[in-house]
Amino acid sequence: MSGSSSTSGMSDTTTTGRQWMRRRPRARWTDAPAPPAPRKCTDDVVVDCALYEDGVRQATLPLREAMKSARERPGSFVWIGLYQPDVEHIAEVADAFGLHPLAVEDAVKAHQRPKLEQYGDTLFLVLKTIVFVEHEKLTATTDVVDTGEILLFVGPDFVVAVRHGSAPGLGRVRKALEGRPDVLAQGPAAVMHAIADQVVDDYLDVADAVELDVEQLEADVFSPGHGDDAERVYQLKRELIEFKRAVQPMARPLQRLAEEPQPSISPEIARYLRDVADHLTQVRERLSGYSELVDGLLAANLSQLAVQQNVDMRRISAGAAILAIPTMIAGFYGMNFEHMPELRWMFGYPLMLGVTAALSFTAYRVFRRVGWL
Question: What is this structure's pTM?
Answer without folding.
Answer: 0.72
